[in-house]
Design goal:
Strand content: 15-25%
Shape: globular
Oligomer: single chain
Mean pLDDT: 92
Largest sheet: 5 strands, antiparallel
Strand order of the largest sheet: 1-2-3-7-4
Number of helices: 7
Helix content: 10-25%
Structural class: alpha+beta
Radius of gyration: 21 Å
Low-confidence stretches: none
Distance between the termini: 37 Å
Length: 363
Amino acid sequence: MSHNTFGHLFRVTTWGESHGPAIGCVVDGCPPGLQLTPEFIQQFLDKRRPGTSRFVTQRQEEDKVRILSGVFEDDRTGGPVTTGTPISLMIENTDQRSKDYGEIRDSYRPGHADYAYDQKYGVRDYRGGGRSSARETATRVAAGAVARQVLGGGITLRGAVVQIGPHAIDRANWDWSIVEQNPFWCPDAAMVPKWEAFLDTTRKAGSSCGAIIEVVADGVPPGWGAPIYGKLDGDIAAAMMSINAVKGVEIGAGFASAALSGEDNADEMRRSGNGVAFLSNNNGGVLGGISTGQPVVARIAIKPTSSILTPRKTVNAQGEDVDIRTKGRHDPCVGIRAVPVAEAMLACVLADHLLRHRGQTGR
């Protein structure tokens, strides 16, 4: 299997399977001299960790990260710092229940990657989907923590769920301070009990639902990205589409901009001190593939979890028509735990573009 690496100067290679002994990643291109500890990385992994509420999978994984290389205890700096060499990170799998998948080893789950994997490789790991499992995203979160250190404290990355199933938040109620105070990463306090009731019904029915996540990066300076084939928003879109179950990406106003007039969509400008102030941000902080200094805003649409208890029509490896239901411990809405993953992918893209910009312009 190829294409397990993303990025140009800040490069991340992930490895491992859902039901293997461990998963991990190698981060290459991280500059030397940055403070990096397991505790710093762990805080982000804990946000993605399974089993934290009844609304996510009950698989019990601690997701404890180990730094295997690329960090040195430097007495001169008072703590472990990156050396500039590849950083290898590992997370052990400790709560696999492979027997849950015995009944589907020869059948393809509708909406899952089973059929496509088998057609491409002629072999597939049916235990939780192998590499196609969202378990792999824990390694991206770990890599995203390294990327945050590259970006430094001047850039803030935050994410929130803005829609679950058909129920969207009221953006007038947006409050970042409550996002981590509820199990849904919801910025609208009034929507929390509605999502709670909706997901309880969905979970008890053995079904699933989709979600929309919004991620925002504040503090990105103007100038990152390159025209044509190195566009910042193009790389963000590609990174977001690589996340499991993502079926759509928007930058700024996104698809809604198709209904706007040119007057409404234009992000008008006025002088502000020695710089420029924008009067709106329909373009999500990117124009011509280059950051403008405004917040970088992206949204992703995540489809319903394919592993459900409701019987579905499919075929097996022998070409026979069969019905299938998936046992095991699955998220009724995988979008909830995808918030830290989307933040991490945005961090990795921005770290890569910081280094690319520095390499081309010297600043």
